[in-house]
Write a structure and sequence with these properties.
There is one protein chain. This protein is α/β, with parallel strands linked by helices. It has one domain: 4-Layer Sandwich (Purple Acid Phosphatase, chain A, domain 2). 22% of the residues lie in helices and 24% in strands. The chain contains six helices and 15 strands. The protein has a six-stranded mixed β-sheet, covered by helices on one side. It has a five-stranded mixed β-sheet with strand order 5-4-1-14-15, with helices on one face. It binds fe (ii) ion. The site of fe (ii) ion has 7 residues, from loops.
Length: 272
C-alpha cells in the first residue's frame, strides 16, 4: 500500500544552526558544537523510524569550512532520506555548491506527495541579516505560480534561514530578513502556502499568521533567550523539529530536545 493510500503523512525533519567548525573540538561560547550536533543526530536516529525528507536550514558551518560541511553531510547520510540545505549567514553558498559529494543537497524545489517545498537562500555574504535577492523572490513567486496550475500540488511549505518576522528579543532587531515585506506579500497571495520554516534565532516558535504556520527551530548548539533586551543564552537543550505534512494540508509538528546531557555555555558572552 502506498503512503498516500495508507493516509500516512510526509515526515519531514528540520535540523538547523549546527555551527560546525573545521576543527571538531572547537567551541562556540564554550559549547562544543560537534558534540551537541552528535547528540541531536543520536536523538533523531532513536526517534525517527521513517524520515521522508531532511531540511537543513542554514548556519551548517560556523567557519564555512569544507570539513564542517562534509561532517554534516556524512552524518545525514546515516538516515535513509534525502537532505537538502540552504545557507545561513555563517555559510558560504559557493563552498556548499562546490562539494562534489553533496551536489544533490543544493536543491531549491522538492515535491513530495501533494506538497511542494520551496527553499530560499536569504544569506548575504559578510552580513548577519538576511535579504532575498531578486532571483530568490522570482524563484519563490514562479514556483508558487507553477504549483498553483499543477494539479498534483495542493500545499506548499517554504523554508529559509532568516526569521521573516521580528524576533521577540530586542537585540535581534535588524538581524532578521530585511525585505520581509516583499517576502510576506508573495506568501499572502497564495492561499495554499501552509507553512514557513526557519532557524537563525535559535529558539522554538510555532505561531500562525494569516492562516500560515510559522515555525522557528532551536539550534543543535547554543540557544537564544526570547523576550530579553540584551543578548543572552538560554539553558534549554539542543533540539530538532519534526513535521507531519498531511495530504489534506494539515500539519503536526513538535521539537525534540536532547535530554540527559549537560550543555555548558558561556553566559557572560555579549554576542556570538
Ligand atoms: Fe545560527
Amino acid at each position: 500500500m502506498t503512503r498516500e493510500a495508507a493516509g500516512a503523512p510526509v515526515r519531514v525533519v528540520q535540523i538547523t544552526d549546527t555551527h560546525l567548525f573545521r576543527d571538531p573540538r572547537a567551541a562556540l561560547l564554550k559549547l562544543n558544537t560537534q558534540y551537541s550536533f552528535e547528540k541531536v543526530v543520536e536523538l533523531m536516529a532513536a526517534k525517527e523510524a521513517n524520515i521522508d525528507l531532511i531540511l537543513a536550514t542554514g548556519d551548517i558551518a560556523q567557519d564555512a569550512s569544507v570539513e564542517a560541511y562534509l561532517r554534516f553531510g556524512d552524518a545525514m547520510q546515516s538516515f535513509q532520506a534525502p537532505f537538502y540545505w540552504i545557507p545561513g549567514n555563517h555559510d558560504r553558498r559557493r563552498v556548499m555548491e562546490n562539494l562534489d559529494q553533496y551536489q544533490d543537497a543544493f536543491t531549491n524545489l522538492v515535491s513530495l506527495s501533494n506538497w511542494q517545498v520551496i527553499m530560499l537562500d536569504s544569506s548575504v555574504v559578510g552580513e548577519v541579516h538576511g535579504h532575498l535577492s531578486e532571483r530568490e523572490l522570482i524563484h519563490l513567486e514562479q514556483s508558487l505560480q507553477a504549483a498553483q496550475s499543477n494539479p498534483q500540488i495542493e500545499h506548499c511549505l517554504v523554508c529559509l534561514h532568516h526569521n521573516p518576522v521580528p524576533g521577540s528579543a530586542q537585540w535581534m532587531e535588524g538581524i532578521g530578513l530585511h525585505n520581509d515585506k516583499a517576502f510576506l506579500a508573495i506568501i499572502d497571495r497564495f492561499e495554499f502556502v501552509r507553512a514557513v520554516v526557519y532557524g537563525h534565532i535559535h529558539q522554538e516558535l510555532d505561531f500562525t499568521r494569516n492562516d500560515v504556520r510559522f515555525f522557528c527551530t532551536p539550534s543543535t548548539c547554543i540557544q537564544f533567550k526570547p523576550e530579553v533586551t540584551e543578548f543572552s543564552l538560554d539553558d534549554v537543550s539542543p533540539a530538532y523539529r519534526w513535521l507531519n505534512l498531511f495530504e489534506d494540508g494539515r500539519i503536526e509538528s513538535e521539537i525534540e530536545r536532547v535530554t540527559g546531557y549537560e550543555f555548558e555555555v558561556d553566559h557572560t558572552s555579549k554576542g556570538y
